[in-house]
Amino acid sequence: MKLWEGRMSGEVDARLNQLNASIGFDQRMYRQDIRGSMAHARMLGKTGILSPEDTQAILSGLAAILADIDAGRLTIDPEAEDIHTFVEGELTARIGDAGKRLHTGRSRNDQVALDDRLYLADETLELIAGVKHLTETLCTVAEGHLTDVMPGYTHLQRAQPVTLAHALMAYAQMLLRDMSRLQDCRSRTMVSPLGSGALAGTTYPLDRRMVAQELGFHDISMNSIDGVSDRDFALELMSALSILMMHLSRLSEEICLWCSWEFRFMTLDDRFSTGSSIMPQKKNPDIAELVRGKTGRVYGDLMTLLTAMKGLPLAYNKDMQEDKEAVFDAVDTVRLCLEVLPPMLESAAFHPDNLRKAAAQGFINATDCADYLTKKGVPFRDAYHVVGALVKQCVEAGYTLETLPLSAYQAAHPAFEEDLYQAIDLLNCVSRRTVEGGPAPEAVRAQIAWTRAQLAEIKDAE
Description:
Layout: H1 14-20, H2 23-26, H3 30-46, H4 52-71, H5 83-95, H6 97-100, H7 108-143, E1 149-154, E2 157-163, H8 164-189, E3 191-192, H9 208-214, E4 219-220, H10 224-229, H11 232-259, E5 266-267, H12 286-309, H13 322-347, E6 349-350, H14 352-361, H15 366-375, H16 380-397, H17 406-412, H18 420-424, H19 426-431, H20 441-456
Parallel strand pairs: 3-4
Antiparallel strand pairs: 1-2, 5-6
Helix pairs in contact: 3-4, 3-7, 3-9, 4-5, 7-8, 7-13, 7-20, 8-11, 8-20, 11-12, 11-13, 12-13, 15-16
């Protein structure tokens, strides 16, 4: 039986049932649905709307249903319209008329909004924990590569010397911002809509704040129309997840490049690679590629709900049922990506010799060479032109700035002396960049310590 059948007569078209039903995807919220119903029942009992006997029967019945589903003794009926209908129908079958009183003072509109918020609040905590684990992994891997010099890039051209640790910690900073966004949007999710009714509240003397407090909400919605028609919390979560996936995609693109023979900066463990069906030499970074590809999927989920919501008048409209599949898919996709990246990074082998070779061949110490002349009193613009000519000479003759003979330097400008080679040593170039946030080993070590201090303040659960 459907909750709304009293107004209708005769059987509805089977195609309407297929289009209308949401049990296939909203059944995952059964714990939140039962939890919300138990809090609602306690409030109805405390306010005298339900008798003590009915209240206890409902609470016992709901607890038994939850235990049976968790244990696999009760299977959720796929023919039910939604999880709310299934739970209420099962409760009524077990305890009789008392089960029919559970819905007193409540609409399915505010019940759905409540379940959505409870479910996404729980899932957001899990996502924060996943991002935190990935950030910790980046810190650990970075610690092992504080002095491994590599080229830093702009325009995908070798630019200035950094270290592998410095590059990895750039992603750690992105993830810290992602966690902050997730925490922030969760705070707006933790607002209880229950008591809003269908859109105009109820004449029953409900204690909305009692229910909100019991369920761990920070506040209640202050307008009943907005309470049932708001899906900003889902949109905000998907927006934060889209930004997070953009960061994971950038990291994945980096991994794909670094694993190529053109770079050879790293090699993935065989557990996180695949081969080719026809080319026996291939070792493909499929996980990184899939994370990169799934980013578009999460973007699409966000656009799905933005588009569904953009023209809706107040208050609830059935279009809003489209929130669940989109946001559930986004959550599931991000969770999976967060699960595979840490072990892939932990087991990867980085190649410091190749990193250093790429740094040397890229003339990324050219700025340091120009700075050397500047410190000798040569105007920077003149030093810039001198070093530019030296780089051209190196390219034509097959040298790097580190291997070019001193005679060639002195022929270009008399200010060059033997101490030049210390000034343009790649590790020295990096080590002198001690500014906060810079690539010097001591600066990156401070970044790692600071990042870990930030992580220590992030709670995995509330």
